[in-house]
Specification:
CATH superfamily: Thiamin diphosphate (ThDP)-binding fold, Pyr/PP domains
Number of domains: 1
Distance between the termini: 27 Å
Oligomer: single chain
Shape: globular
Bound molecules: thiamine diphosphate, iron/sulfur cluster
Number of strands: 7
Radius of gyration: 18 Å
Helix content: 25-40%
Largest sheet: 7 strands, mixed
Strand order of the largest sheet: 2-1-3-4-6-5-7
Structural class: alpha/beta
Order of helices and strands: HHEEHEHHEHEHEHHEH
CATH architecture: 3-Layer(aba) Sandwich
Length: about 280
Amino acid sequence: MEALKISPGFEKIMPQEYLDLVEDGPYGRGLTVKDLGTFKELIEEHPLCAGCGLGLSIRLILASLPNPENTVIVGTTGCNSILMPQVAIHNVHALFGNQNAVASGLKRALRIRYPNTHKDVVVIAGDGAVVDIGLAPTMHSWFRREQFTTIMLDNEGYSNTGGQESGMTRQGVVVNMAPVGKKFPKIPLHEVAKVAGCAYVATATPARARRLGQMARRAILVAREIGPTYVQIFCPCSTNYKFPPAETLTRAKETEITEYMIPEAKELIERIEKGPKSRGGEE
Ligand SMILES: Cc1ncc(C[n+]2csc(CCOP(=O)(O)OP(=O)(O)O)c2C)c(N)n1
Ligand code: SF4
């Protein structure tokens, strides 16, 4: 399926890995996270730190998209954004904090331009982008019931800029550039999302890969039919929290997995997952 193309004339000079993204991308295959390794969703030599939970979480999300050829990811500045130019899915980069405003306009424009095709819009952004600098656009997109999914990669701080505390940093924690320790508790954004109008809200971890994939997929399907959805993925950062990269997944388990949905969303998910060829179950 020609969802991603090399611009004419560039075929001869593009590195083989990029040609492989086009030839062997995730389009039209009905993939789930258990298919990771059988297709190419990302350039292997990406620039994230060894053991980074963001890279793994993004791979799991890419393998869970219900319709990758009709999906646009909206990213923004942060560690995740240095990975985005190397994935096999269409993506745009928004000014830091503006991601949900950009996604709102994009989703509406795609609906007008392609009235007969579902075009899924998925925001993938760091906790600083979502809960601090971009909180107003995030909340207002939920208040307006914009039909796209917001995924926060929660590494409990500003990592790309060397370790400042964010609203998601836990109380008392000291990071590189916040030496006196966080003075107030981690913001319960997943609880706020429920009262702000999200039809589906989940907290996930890459340490439970299939469950994360299921939640990302459910969130996208609910956003398509019903309203805004929010998934918060806990991705510990070994570089700024100073632990060995091999411990990332062990630490990622230390979070609560939760799932909330309004009755209409529950009914939709049950209908889809009971239907033929469903990829929605945890498996
Ligand atoms: C408008 C704007 N403000 C501030 C910055 C500086 N900046 C770049 S990345 C970043 C922190 C990103 O933190 P987070 O969203 O948590 O993502 P992470 O790097 O932790 O994945 C900041 C403040 C910027 N690039 N643009
Ligand atoms: S600084 Fe942290 S979040 Fe950023 S790439 Fe490295 S491990 Fe990942």
